[in-house]
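Figure 6 in text form: structure in, sequence out.
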């Protein structure tokens, strides 16, 4: 008798009935772990993107416009963007010929280190402007073809997707009853991408061998450190236009494996959270996913930073969640600490700038911070941080007024009566405790800070 069921129906019937989607099953006899069989994700489609399409002059004109709108740090050649663009178009016929033949050799990237919030160092690789333009030209033609094949649970470095969408999806999984999270941290992911594995994954998607050779050349371009070029045997240096797309190609393998197993997960770049119903299931998932990452992708899971826990005990993209049946987004403690450290630096009492100058610079940071964290659903935290910022500014002003005589004069000018002005102005207390006094609060009130344009943290 003919089987009229669809392929997806037959696959779904293979699933173990006692295992809920999104959780690893109990280990079977022999130590083999059964898992939920979801519809198999489609295999990557091969795209016939040609170097001729990439090397169109209009594509490169647009690429240079994009490069001009980005960072202005020069690469190892030391050329400014104006000099680099002029030289590029002078050499365009020869560069185009090299690209079309797949023989182009990019220059090494310049290493640049920036401090991370956790005390570590993030290493960036800054390409020359010419290499940035070539990478951008490739990206402009490659991303529209590859990006639609990525998982719906992937949000990082993708058009029309954001960190806020990822956070909202994470909250929805918790509201649906998946109240345990497998918080997976990949150790030095961008520095440890295996070139052979990545090129193999690209070869499954692209047919033009010339393009593949150019992409391999960028991976192997090397890094210049203290004037010496060191070979690049692994990793995709952060700083080039292609790096985000290549990282998503690599981690799409992880997404496909998680989807095949029926897990509910959210991934933003190398930050991946998998949501399950129980702690026991979480530990099984952590073990199986770590095994996949290590053996299949040749990457390393950071065991110290990875954990199975309640979402309220972890942070994801700067946010955490309340433990209520309908979780609310809240700012993670680490993000609050980073905020306060930054504001301290911007409001140093010995900075030698006027209050209005300090507020102007501070507002630049506060606007950006509010744009990201203003969606916090625990407003008391924002109120507390706003109060603390004003406290910092009052302390700065008190320091700048310097002497008791001048402090008394300034308080009187701001409407404080003679007695309180003299008592406060001549107080032996330090700047921080005196900034909490009632007379100074009245003189430099919330309305005063509103009048000079201090940005509020809470959205209107």
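Output sequence:
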């Amino acid at each position: 008798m003919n089987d009229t069921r669809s392929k997806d129906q037959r696959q779904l019937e293979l699933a173990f009935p006692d295992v809920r989607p999104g959780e690893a099953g109990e280990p079977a006899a022999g130590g083999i772990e059964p898992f939920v069989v979801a519809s198999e994700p489609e295999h990557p489609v091969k795209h016939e993107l040609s170097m001729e399409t990439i090397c169109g002059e209009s594509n490169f004109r647009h690429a240079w416009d994009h490069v001009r709108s980005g960072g202005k740090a020069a690469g190892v050649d030391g050329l400014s963007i104006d000099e680099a663009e002029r030289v590029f178009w002078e050499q365009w016929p020869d560069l185009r010929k090299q690209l079309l033949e797949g023989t182009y050799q990019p220059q090494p990237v310049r290493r640049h280190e920036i401090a991370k919030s956790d005390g570590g160092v993030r290493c960036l690789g800054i390409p020359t402007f010419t290499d940035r333009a070539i990478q951008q030209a490739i990206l402009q033609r490659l991303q529209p073809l590859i990006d639609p094949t990525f998982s719906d649970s992937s949000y990082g470095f993708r058009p029309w997707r954001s960190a806020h969408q990822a956070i909202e999806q994470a909250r929805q999984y918790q509201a649906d009853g998946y109240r345990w999270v497998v918080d997976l941290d990949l150790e030095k992911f961008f520095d440890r991408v295996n070139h052979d594995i990545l090129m193999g994954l690209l070869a499954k998607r692209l047919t033009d061998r010339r393009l593949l050779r150019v992409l391999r050349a960028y991976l192997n371009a090397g890094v210049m450190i203290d004037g010496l070029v060191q070979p690049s045997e692994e990793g995709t240096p952060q700083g080039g236009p292609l790096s985000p797309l290549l990282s998503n190609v690599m981690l799409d393998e992880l997404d496909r494996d998680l989807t095949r197993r029926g897990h509910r997960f959210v991934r933003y770049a190398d930050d991946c959270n998998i949501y399950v119903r129980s702690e026991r299931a979480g530990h099984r998932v952590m073990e199986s996913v770590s095994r996949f990452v290590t053996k299949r992708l040749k990457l390393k899971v950071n065991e110290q930073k990875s954990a199975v826990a309640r979402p309220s005990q972890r942070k994801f993209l700067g946010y955490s969640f309340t433990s209520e049946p309908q979780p609310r987004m809240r700012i993670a403690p680490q993000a609050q600490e980073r905020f306060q450290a930054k504001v301290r630096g911007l409001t140093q009492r010995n900075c030698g700038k006027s209050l209005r100058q300090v507020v102007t610079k501070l507002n630049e940071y506060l606007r950006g911070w509010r744009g990201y964290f203003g969606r916090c659903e625990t407003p008391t935290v924002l109120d507390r941080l706003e109060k603390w910022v004003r406290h910092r500014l009052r302390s700065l002003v008190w320091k700048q007024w310097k002497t008791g005589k001048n402090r008394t004069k300034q308080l009187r000018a701001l409407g404080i009566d003679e007695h309180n002005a003299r008592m406060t102005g001549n107080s032996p207390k330090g700047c921080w405790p005196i900034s909490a006094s009632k007379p100074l609060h009245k003189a430099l009130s919330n309305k005063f800070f509103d009048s000079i344009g201090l940005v509020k943290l809470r959205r209107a």
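Caption detail: Strands lie at 109-115, 121-126, 180-185, 223-225, 228-230, 264-268, 271-276, 307-309, 319-321, 329-331.
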